[in-house]
Specification:
This protein is an all-alpha fold and 77 residues long. Helices cover 71% and strands 0% of the residues. It has a domain of 34 residues.
């Protein structure tokens, strides 16, 4: 595992010191879990923005809507 040195606010260090209270074996495992969770949240937000952009394009493109409808009509039920 790679080690990194960084600074935190006093309140953040106080929170990390309570790692056992939250089910973590040490501060590092708690911080890794927090980073992983935040990364997933950011990825989800990017996906939502992308889906919204595609939705906007789709709503304005009648040809694309027609192709989609034709494909759905041919889809087995």
């Amino acid at each position: 595992m790679i080690q990194a040195k960084f600074s935190v606010e006093q309140s953040q260090d106080d929170f990390l010191r309570d790692h056992k209270k939250y089910g973590f074996k040490d501060k590092s495992s708690m911080l890794r879990a927090a980073i992983d969770r935040y990364r997933k949240e950011l990825e989800l937000e990017r996906l939502k923005l992308s889906a919204n952009a595609y939705s906007e394009v789709y709503s304005k493109d009648n040809d694309l809507q027609g192709v989609t409808e034709a494909a759905l009509n041919e889809w087995p039920k």
